[in-house]
Design goal:
The protein has 283 residues and is an alpha/beta fold. It has helices at residues 17-30, 47-62, 81-86, 90-95, 129-140, 174-183, 202-205; strands at residues 2-7, 34-37, 67-69, 103-106, 109-113, 147-151, 188-191, 198-201, 213-216, 231-238, 241-249, 254-256, 260-265, 268-271, 280-281. The chain has 7 helices and 15 strands. The chain binds fe (ii) ion (2 copies).
């Protein structure tokens, strides 16, 4: 079995230190095989904010945890226009990871991160043709029996933002990206950006999608909430089965929600004991 802790949208600079401490505590207790952080490490990509994020990662690594991260739109400078266009991810590379599309192999799971943050858009994400080739090539040469997990900051689908009916934007070049993902049999798609935790069958969200299970993380430590408390995801992978437990902030600690066990049946995922609805929110 492999255990991932999926955190997102830490937003150092607009974070609550109590939650950072509580997240670290839970990471030590849960002993994951990998901590996945799906972007927005900082609030405004400032050096001091990256330094705080870096110290957080250093503490995790010093305690023996492996971490895989991808940049988010907030990790690209917004107001510093020169830096935004000439060296958008220099600070990310210096403080977080020199590798923008990292890969990590676990027993039973291969995890690949793809950078979807761009200088040319304010907050939207994109996948390049080169990255699509990279996704195909990477999964082609890794263990065919291992679960294939793709991590991006931006969700590939238009998913709810906030409490109302408003949907965020799907990723740029969505159809081509979904073709690449379906071709190489990606099983799990992990993302953040909307600050809202949920799980979906990819096929319910887009007709061309393959049979992936889509798991969105809320914000783990940011004080900028969108009608939902801070949370992160605990994801246990056992052969073909996935168990998702959302850990939500309860005012003084992170509390475990109900464990949702997803079983793969042909080209879709079913919650053991119930049909997977279009959206399974965190609570
Ligand atoms: Fe964010
Ligand atoms: Fe974001």
């Amino acid at each position: 079995m492999a255990r991932l802790l999926h955190l997102s949208d830490l937003h150092f600079g607009a974070h609550d230190p109590r939650l950072v401490e509580a997240v670290e505590q839970r990471i030590h207790e849960e002993k994951p095989d990998l901590v996945v952080i799906s972007g927005d490490f900082t609030q405004r990509a400032r050096t001091e904010q990256f330094r705080e994020a870096c110290q957080f990662l250093d503490r995790l690594r010093e305690a023996g945890h492996d971490v895989l991260g991808v940049p988010g739109n907030h990790d690209v400078p917004l107001y510093d226009v020169l830096r935004r266009f000439l060296s958008p991810l220099t600070r990310y590379k210096r403080f977080i990871d020199d590798e923008l599309c990292p890969m990590h192999e676990l027993r039973g799971a291969t995890v690949l991160g793809i950078n979807t943050a761009r200088s040319l858009t304010f907050k939207d994400g994109n996948i390049s043709h080169e990255q699509m080739r990279f996704i195909r090539d990477t999964f082609e040469r890794t263990d065919a029996k291992a679960m294939r997990i793709l991590v991006t900051h931006h969700p590939l689908f238009a998913l709810p933002v906030g409490d109302g009916p408003e949907l965020g934007k799907a990723i740029g070049r969505q159809e081509l990206a979904l073709d690449a993902i379906a071709d190489c049999g990606v099983d799990l798609l992990l993302a953040g950006h909307n600050h809202r935790a949920s799980a979906h069958n990819a096929r319910d969200l887009a007709t061309r999608a393959g049979s992936s299970l889509v798991i969105q993380a809320g914000t783990a430590t940011s004080v900028r909430l969108r009608d939902e408390e801070q949370s992160f995801n605990e994801i246990d992978i056992d052969g073909e089965n996935v168990t998702l437990t959302v850990q939500s902030w309860a005012g003084d600690k992170f509390a475990s929600g109900d464990a949702q066990r997803f079983v793969r049946e042909g080209d879709h995922w079913r919650i053991a004991g119930a049909e997977l609805k279009v959206e399974q929110t965190a609570h």
